Amino acid sequence: MADHDLSSTASLYIAGEWCPPAEGRRREVCNPANGSLVATIGYGGRAEALAAAAAAQDAFPSWAGLPARARADLLLRASLLLQERAERIGYLLALESGKRLPEAVAEVRFAVEYLRWFAEQVRRPAGELLRPETPQRRQLTLRQPCGVALCLTPWNFPVSIQARKIAAALAAGCTVVSRPSEKAPLAVIELFRCLHEAGLPPGVANLVHGPAAEITETLLQHPSVRVVSFTGSTEVGRQIMRQAAERIVRPLLELGGNAPFIVFADADLERAVEGAMLAKFRNNGQSCIAANRFFVEAPIFAEFVERFAARINAMRVGNPVQEPIPDLGPVIDEQRQHALTRLVEEAQAQGARVVTEAVAVPAQGSFVAPALLVDLSVESALAQEEVFGPVALVFPFETEEEVIGRANACEMGLAAYFYTRQLERAWRVAEALEAGIIGLNSPLPSVAYAPMGGLKQSGLGREGSHEGLDEFQEVKYLSCEW
């Protein structure tokens, strides 16, 4: 596929130029479906990170000084380019990540929505005129960009998460240095091509590939970096927060999840099973807001398990870009494949039962057969950890009070789902669940105009919506007298 071959293309974008790393370092990007080489990217380090930060620092005054309309127009031009190329970039994303082709194309189009949303949002009024208490005095607030923003993104939704961060930062008037995951960097490169071709001034957004710890530490120590936006594990988020504290860099963190999925006896059962399939198996189960722990009220437990298992048994696993498109592709790499296999085997050794059949998977590639487990020990690692793969766990419960306690008995609080047809219960449960994102009879809650973020150990701040713009701006208070 020549259209998707980036093997000879420079992939570091610094000061408006595509450039190779100074030391000539390269890193291979492989297809998790078969291990084949997709591309080789330039892999930078401290020198490239410093050059990118300097470029962003130099570009900040003029970018921050542009009228909001000018920044909005550029983001809109980039969104149109990204929309035109969604099929091609989606194919590339499927190759590098193992994401099913329709989902990969849909992710690129979701990235388009973030560019459009923040282009529109930045033109709305900012700041506030306070009501005066004395005739000769007026007070108001101003919103101004923080400075250089460091954007660190994962491999599971590389394009949409990158767009969610940089669109907000650029709209706010910040300049950006981004580091995507080395496991899925290629579609992000294409996003930056769209920004470049849309007329992005040199240095306003910079893309650096390289070792995560080295790049992050270098940039967090740079005096121009004023905000860090990170999506990833809670463990790494804690490390970034400690580093950010050294210079009081504002942290915006979307971290790990362990989402409960609750089905009450009054729910529409077929709708709940359909929602469970989407909430669990989207992106091959590799989503931080994926349903992780299923709780089903006792009177319908057996029937839910039977229906859920039947749907899982019917799944087809295979190459995510080949017709007919399968229901599941591979997980990201062999490390994740082996971790999931180990977790399931350990749970079985502790008494858990797999109630699904052995779905056939290709011999080559990092594939994991989907599975549904019951009778798990609550102490098992599979019941305690974020699964991040196509393995579902189901527990029965007796009362609403019991299931709320079990759902909240977790240090994470990113997403939660529940199914019921009782209006009074809907409000009660939504208010009681300790999660930043809640789906009521809704398995796919994410939209560009709604806030994305978690409670407890699942992060700080919000992305998307008008709140996502606020995260990249400082509030300045002005008091005037005459």
TrEMBL record:
InterPro entries in the record: Ald_DH/histidinol_DH, Ald_DH_C, Ald_DH_CS_CYS, Ald_DH_CS_GLU, Ald_DH_N, Aldehyde_DH_dom, Aldehyde_DH_Superfamily
Keyword presence, Oxidoreductase: yes
Domain of life: Bacteria
GO molecular function annotations of the record: succinate-semialdehyde dehydrogenase (NAD+) activity
Entry's Gene Ontology BP terms: gamma-aminobutyric acid catabolic process
Oxidoreductase as UniProt keyword: yes
Entries under Pfam families matching the protein: Aldedh
Keywords in alphabetical order: Oxidoreductase
Matches recorded under PROSITE patterns: ALDEHYDE_DEHYDR_CYS, ALDEHYDE_DEHYDR_GLU
Domain spans labelled Aldehyde dehydrogenase: 20-477
Active site annotation, chain numbering: E254
Family assignment from sequence similarity: Belongs to the aldehyde dehydrogenase family.
PANTHER family to which the protein is assigned, alphabetical: SUCCINATE-SEMIALDEHYDE DEHYDROGENASE, MITOCHONDRIAL (PTHR43353)
Protein name: NAD-dependent succinate-semialdehyde dehydrogenase
Source species of the chain: Thermogemmatispora tikiterensis
